[in-house]
Amino acid sequence: MAAALARRVAVALRVDVDVPTHTHPGLATTHGGKAGIDLDDAVPAFARAAATGWLDVRGLHVHIGSQITSVEPYVSALERSLELMQRLEGESGLRLEELNLGGGLAVPYRQEPACAADDYFCCTLTPDDYAAAICAVLERRRSDLKLLMEPGRAIAGTTAILVTRVEGEKTKAVRDESGRRTAEERWLVIDAGANTLLEHTNYDWYFRTVVANRADRAAATPFRLAGPLCDGGDVFAGDDGSAFRRFPAETTAGDVIAFRDCGAYTLEMMHPYNARPCAAAYAVVDGQVVQIRRADSFDDLVAHDIAEGAPLAERGTLPK
Predict the structure, then answer these.
(1) pTM (2 decimals)?
(2) From residue 221, how far is each of 186, 206, 218, 267 by CA, in Å?
(3) Average pLDDT score over residue span 300-315
(4) Dist. CA 69–CA 107, nearest whole Å
(5) Catalytic residue among 135, 230, 262, 278
(6) Residue 314: enclosing H or E segment and its boundaries?
(7) How many other C-beta atoms are found inside a 10 Å radius of the C-beta of residue 82?
(8) Which of 86, 115, 207, 277 could link 122 by a cystine bridge, Cβ 3.0 to 4.6 Å?
């Protein structure tokens, strides 16, 4: 493309430096992930790019994933990146000016005094903690490099909440192997499910919740929390590794539940599954609530449908 436009383009090539990240498998972009040039192919790839004449190879891009709740993967990736850059410069004659270390700094979806090593929803680190670890390595090994970072969901995630209403409640029995009733579970069904918050089922994601109109009441009673879809899997992950969310005991139909930290990818992932229209969205601008997306209508749901018997010319051409 650069050659066709006769314009020289500055680039950084992305390489998979093969570092484990200890995040959700769907968010890992290295160590067996699909993204990036394989580490073994990095040197010839940089040489090929530099030889084109149209690519000004300025740096190395290393993105190892998102929602990484410790600094160790970044430090490991940085150390391996600097070793690769030294090799690239020695074998290709390039002088690389910048390193993009990716980002995806973690959002504390759970806020606990201490986090289990395998709990990628819990994070006690701040951006300053990441910066201190990364900059210490750079200052020691390559203080001349320009460092680029992509904070990702650490910026977007905390900007939004999902507001939903309790549409129904029920009590269901818990039975032992003989069928004897041993306990009861209280269920709440809300009007937002996987169609509105896809990550809750796609990645079994955890979002903190609060009953907004009862926020001043103690949230100590366990409830099972479900969406409105026909799928049995449209049930929200619970608190503390359990199946239950804890809400005020009097929580009931008509109450409003807010899911926190929904700013990352939620609007883009909404879809009209089960013929449920996508939701409206609002922003707070200078202290005022402003609508930024209208709710879908029935007409929106059927806008791409084609009437039976319509001539092919009206339907469009068939795919080859």
Answers:
(1) 0.87
(2) 9, 18, 9, 31
(3) 77
(4) 8
(5) 230
(6) helix 312-315
(7) 18
(8) 115
The span from the CA of 248 to the CA of 53, in Å, is 66
Q: Which of 168, 185, 174, 192 is nearest to 224 (CA)?
A: 185
Q: Residue 210 corresponds to which amino acid?
A: V
Q: What would the pLDDT profile of 52-88 be if each residue is shown by its tens digit?
A: 999 999 999 999 999 999 999 999 999 999 999 999 9
Q: State yes or no: is 230 an active-site residue.
A: yes
* Both structure tokens of 268: 């883009």
The phi, psi pair for 314, rounded to 5°, reads: -80, -25
CATH architecture assigned to 160-301: Beta Barrel (2.40)
Alpha carbons 8 and 53: distance in angstroms, whole number:
8
CA angle 172, 173, 176 (to 5 degrees): 150
Query: Whose structure tokens read 């900059």?
Result: 135
- Contact status, residue 194 vs residue 202, Cβ threshold 8 Å: yes
| Sequence ranges of the domains in the chain | 2-156, 160-301
Query: Token pair for residue 315?
Result: 């339907």
With b for 16 or more beta-carbon neighbours within 10 A and e for fewer, the 188-207 pattern comes to bbbebbbbbbbbbbeeebbb
Does residue 225 contact residue 188 with C-beta atoms inside 8 Å? Answer: yes
CATH architecture type of domain 2-156: Alpha-Beta Barrel (3.20)
